[in-house]
Structure of Cytochrome c oxidase accessory protein CcoG:
Amino acid sequence: MSKAKAERIPVKDLYAKAEKIYPRQVHGFFSRLRILTVFLLLGIYYIVPWLTWDDRQAILLDLPARKFHLFGITFWPQDFVYLTLLLVICAVGLFLFTAFAGRLWCGYACPQTVWTQTFIWIEEFVEGNRNARIRLDKKPWGPEKLLKKTAKHTLWILFALFTGYTFVGYFSPIRELWDGILAFSLGPWEWFWIGLYSLATYGNAGRLREQVCLYMCPYARFQSAMFDKDTLIISYDEERGEERGKRKRNADYKADGLGDCIDCKQCVHVCPTGIDIRDGLQYECIACAACIDVCDDVMDQMGYDKGLIKYTTEHSEKGKSTHILRPRTFLYTSLFMGLIATFFFLIATRTPLDVNVIRDRNNLFNETFSGEIQNTYQLKVLNMSQVANDYELKINGYQTSQIDGPTKFTIDAGGVLTLPLRVSIDADELEKRSNDIYFEITTLNDSQDTYIAKGKFLGPKKEK
């Protein structure tokens, strides 16, 4: 190919730079609801680590000590089943709410949505409204632009650092963490996680924003598996709105063949992901309902009925009745409520004592001079309650059992006690070579709770 011919071939970029989105603030019912949700969730996140319970931090996930304090309950690694069940409950709850109301989680409660909205508020506070931000970005660099951009990013970084500090405060005592920051005495991991979480907050909520929802979040890709024609979605009434066109407020637009949509594009300007809801349901829509609020406001100004853009269902759009109770939602609701009931039942009946029975494998058994069979054990007893307790140990199920070792002992809150024991049982009571033995531990406080730990007791082979 000649050089001249090659120069005439147009060159196309394989990568198109994403256009910056300038979402406009909107006022309305759903906007107020979203603001309330943002303040509620941020308030919980930032305030909870500062709450105290019995002279300690109310919620503290103490990884080095392997203790997870949640108000009046302390969980241990042995309680991993509760965390697993809680995660399953959250997943089923997400499926349930999605089946009912679509991407309700994305629009109101997702951390990406909550923190992005906060960063947008900061940006609007410094740089002004949507039009002012667009004009500022188009301006050449000068003192005003430099000052505003510096102020915005400074506030973003400070807010992100406070977010990272609070996050680490769930794992290290938050008051001690603050003292360590002032004295520059934190450990490397604490500095690392504060920096990483701050960077993630600044990057995701300040820089990437809608790109996290569009390209990184998997939920948008598989949400269709949880949708059906009775799922609540945000939709534009095409039959009522088309043909679009601009007109004066009191004009007889229907005589000109126009619909209710005045093509003001306000629904696009307020969308945090930059889509046009009039193009139909799209996976980029996070169901924040900002387009509903702004469209209702425009309809009010024009003197038209509200609801050109609204929450609806596919069945409702086609004139069919919407069914809230259907096999999908019934299954999700039953499973969700059943899991919650199971979780609270397990918490209510949780045993705040963990006993690990370790039999001496180097010595199967001994026979005493009096003809009894003796096995050697180590009992590792963990007091998982938040107070010290006195305990008494017994053997359950054998009339001739004797314990050579401590039978009454005290364990501090969160303490572990190792008990070396020798247990003797009359050979006539042993029915086979390997027998079940039950160690019964009773608390000597007002509750008188009893815990049973199972082990194996070995004896001589029985003659047939």
